[in-house]
Amino acid sequence: MSYRWRQHLFPIVNGGVLAIIGLVTLFPLYYVFIVSFTHPDEFMSKGFVLFPEKWSILSYRYLLSTKSFINATGVSVFLTLVGTAISLLITSSFAYTISRKRLKGRRVIMLAVLLTTLFQPGIIPNYLLVRELGLINSIWALIIPVMTSGWYVLLMRGFYESIPDSLEEAAAIDGCNEITTWTKIIIPLSLPAMAAFGLFYAVGYWNTFFHAVLYINDHAKWPLQMLLQNMLIDASTSAGGSVALELAAEQHMPPETLKMAAVVIATVPILLVYPFLQKHFAKGAMVGSIKG
């Protein structure tokens, strides 16, 4: 009886602990979402709302009516779309090249790529390089220094090594050159890997913050995460993200609802990308990791 009692007790305790952890994890997300849709008058009167009596989208309307927030959203969208496309092009083409055994100096190139994953130059050398390239205060400073990753190249190389050489030989017999083989055969076969690493790159570009702090001084070129940080940390400054908070003060709106709305706007878009890539994500990531 004691053994059976312990058998029934463990699932109950385990489920209870996991439920508590899940609630602790999800509650901040729930609170942010609820406050962002709470009517300003209700939030100002209560101060703490778990389920609003009056729902409102005034916070979103005020945010989306400010030039600074629209500019920051546009910068983040540009970084995500253009940066991800460039990163995928460079990473996939480079990984495919070093995956072919006929490439001369292949081992030396792979060693050089591996060294980039082990040794990082640091903040100051990176800043000096970006400055010498004339990219300070340029949006391209947020793309060019991070447009590829040695680790991603090695993982994608493992994926390409799983593609048999016989496919390229058959394409060559049919009269295909290297470019045609790459575009017509290799890229369609590598869509799972493209989806997996494309999601990694997209999340990285959308959440760009630290490089913006280093390289971007013009408030009009701030990405969304940089603007959000300015709103959350220093609501009293008159620059950048506090434009929306000043508008809120003029309209007698609580800054907290605007902050929560900004967090939702900055979080939801990248979450919506994952369901469309989910069927390719697991396969692409696993093949690259196993073969790499």
Automatic annotation (TrEMBL):
Segments crossing the lipid bilayer: 12-34, 69-96, 108-129, 135-155, 194-216, 260-277
SUPFAM superfamilies: MetI-like
Broad class of the protein's primary localization: membrane
Subcellular location: Cell membrane
Pfam families according to UniProt: BPD_transp_1
Domain ABC transmembrane type-1, residue spans: 73-277
Topology relative to the membrane: Multi-pass membrane protein
InterPro entries named in the record: MetI-like (IPR000515), MetI-like_sf (IPR035906)
Gene3D superfamilies (UniProt xref): MetI-like (1.10.3720.10)
Keyword line: Cell membrane, Membrane, Transmembrane, Transmembrane helix, Transport
Family: Belongs to the binding-protein-dependent transport system permease family.
Protein name (record): Carbohydrate ABC transporter permease
Naturally occurring in which organism (per UniProt): Paenibacillus yanchengensis
Lineage of origin: Bacteria, Bacillati, Bacillota, Bacilli, Bacillales
